[in-house]
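Reopening this ticket.

The earlier resolution said the output was attached, but the attachment link was broken on my side. Pasting everything inline this time so it's all in one place.
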Amino acid sequence: MNIHHKKKFLSFLKFKRDFQKYGLEKARSYELILHWLNNRLSRNQFLVLSGILVGCTAGLAGVLLKSLVHAIHHFITTKVHFEYQILFYIIFPFLGIVLTTSIVLTIFKGQDRKGIGAILYEIAQNSSIVSSVKMYSQIVQSAVTVGLGGSAGLESPIAVTGAAIGSNFAQTYRLSYKERTLLLAAGATAGIASAFNAPIAGIMFAFEILLTGVVFTDFIPLVVAAVCGSLLSRILLQEDVLFRFYTREAFNYKNVPYYLILGIVTGLYARYFVIISKKVEHFIKKLNMSRLRKAMFGGAVLSLLCVLFPPLFGEGYETVKAFTNGDVHRIIENSLFRYFEIGNFTIIIFLILVLLLKAFATSFTIFSGGNGGNFAPSLFAGGTVGYLFAIICQQIGFSEVPVTNLVLVGMAGAMSGVMYAPLTAIFLIAESSFGYDLFIPLMIASIMSYLIAKWFSPISPELKSLADQGKIFTNKHDKNILFSLKTEDFIDRYSQVINENAPVKELFELVKNGNKNIFAVVNDEKTLRGILTLDDIRPYLFTNDEVSASVSQIMKAPPAIIHPENQPLQILQAFDDTGVWNLPVVDAQNKFIGFISKSTILMSYRQLLKEYSE
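Inline output:
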């Protein structure tokens, strides 16, 4: 062993001893090696290595889930006779939602936060720390839901799984909040890239939805994670599983009016989809049933819809591929509409009903207890809108309608309006169809749809509920950092308290022996009655006259009252509105808990902001 290698070996042994010293002697060998590399490599070098590892792991998770669900769908839709398919459509969607709910209740203790909002919640509320359970729980739940026919997509669960992988990797190697958030986003990026075999779309997804304020050097881990996820998808997934479209027409500028109108139509449909989703969500929440009964009800509705309209079964990508291949008759022949004469009028009526009911099928799948996301439903609906628009144009008398292009552009338009992610939609379809010459129509339709969606609601409806609850910010990056702070951490529970019936002389003793400049006045039940500051007491401190007043006579009402469930932004707003620096905190029964200081919140915020910017 030469001197150079000997030094490296001794350095590794010293690191291992130090590692054991900090109580981590049970770490696996590969964890020791990565910890050692973390201490030897520069920050950017280790982040690139981390991006590769997280990207490969998240990519494999995406490949596993897509392959599993595809195998189930292939068996049901191609290996089984039509009459038996109807039986499966009756049983499997119902079973999928009920089984998913049962798994959540029994195995995962009822914790079923799902969708892209779950990732943003962890970034904003939990310092980008995601439970390790989510590294596999989303795969299990979504595989059962979508695999058995749930009318939802796998991409959101894959993104949440990837985010959990990235977050837990960062936690293992004790990375900072900024790096933890970056690797969380890298995992989600790799998941999306593997699901669609579209690395650029995965990166756009991270920047549009998950991250803001990322510097250029932090761009690299996202790129390598997306590349790793996409490569694994390309290598391991079969061709018919990949989200690929090989037939399309060349772009002709004369067709721009088609794309303009389609952008408006997809934007309006996206708004319809969002409204139905919200109404179904509220309807299910108001049902006076147990979670399992809600799952049974939602599963029954979904099964009925799938029997009547089989394209609503599962993700629906095969249906969209049939549109681009001109094979729409095969879709109708696998439904009850096969008993009607299949002409253009039948096709139009069938597709209109599918579009109207897709929003219901997806909403009942997700909100009644299933696990899935809106990626696939929005793409399916957009492709259907595009094909329907093309058929109607042909029926009106227009010639040379670019049918396949309208299907592809429609997918981008609907996804942009539903997900509020126009760049992700543009690059996703461009990569999946090798249609880079379609950038202009993709941009036209996506931006039109996005602007319509923004006109109805400034923020994504998927995130609006979190914003309304004060759980997440939707505009500035520094506010998201502020939301990672916890109100409980800022309450001074050792505040000085005095009874309202106590004489002022007792208050003097409290001032003399304490170190506070604000006091809470309570009654015998510890209910807050008022507050006092040194400024209120000062006139009585330096008088030679005997003070006979009681505390209740000189106390004053607090300018505002804080509750433990209030978020830091709300508290800071209260401080700004009142112009004070200390406010009392009480519980639901108005029992005094302690004081909270504006300066304490601001100091913690500055510290976290400094950590993120380092």
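Reporter confirms the inline version is readable. The chain has three domains: 14-236, 253-475, 485-613. Residues 14-236 form a domain with the Clc chloride channel fold (CATH 1.10.3080.10).
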